[in-house]
């Protein structure tokens, strides 16, 4: 009888433990789901409030020990902080929140970085090419929108300027988009390259028009251009061999020579030249020489009064048919033939920086 009572008490004890373990598991599961639900509601609430989405604690405390937050700073102070960020850090900061995205993608911040790195290379032609690229991209977005959503969605996207389509992406017409497109090499822009074919002797102290793409891993460029009607690609072009186009007219257009009346011996010039009539012009560097050799002509120089102007290209050896040519001030047009090539428009170089860029392209043996 007593043994049966002990067995009954033991069974009751194990049953009680089993019940407690099952109840504890249920409590833990309920607590876990409750915590996840509260976390979800907290994140949802923070995402609804852009101003409180990113409240980064700063590395200082106020007098009463209350935390200070980045977005609590005045706009002028916050803008001053953002202006000191590098392009990479500014791009990272723009992905943190909606509020910081609007501030970090503003044009006035990226315009400084664009001018600092690309200002000497991106000219008016490149900006026009970029605007054409923007218009083409917006047109493509409109077409894709009409295909996916229908004519009604296309109507509303056109009416709103594609704001709904681009609300979660970077605006295509922002300066930040231009900077990133240049930095990643996605945007091929027009520029001019000195000393074609890596300094080939036949192209020494010349530059040609090309489309360039940047390689950020190697810090150099590749250029594509047309060589006698064939598409050509030249890689590994250094920054020192590049400049923005000297004139907005294309390489097939004769540049109007508006400096002929003022040319005198010793002036630095660049002139359009091409080997055959049906290929694009390049620009060649030269100086204005004297009509007659000798020290007497240099002392009592009257060359600036003559209608003839001697152009010297000292990068070529004496006796070369490209060493010099003579043009007329009064009626200068494209001159030349199949043997000597065709000389086009002339630019006088007034800027010392332009002259120094040409002189830096001299090879050691040509100096």
Automatic annotation (TrEMBL):
What is the protein's given name? F-box domain-containing protein
The cross-references to InterPro entries, in alphabetical order and at most eight, read: F-box-like_dom_sf, F-box_dom
Cited PROSITE patterns: FBOX
Where would you find the membrane-spanning parts of this chain?
27-44
Q: Which residues form a coiled coil?
A: none
Native organism = Daucus carota subsp. sativus
Q: Where is the F-box domain?
A: 67-113
Pfam families documented for this protein:
F-box
Top-rank taxon: Eukaryota
Q: Which UniProt keywords apply?
A: Membrane, Transmembrane, Transmembrane helix
Note the Gene3D superfamilies from the entry: 1.20.1280.50
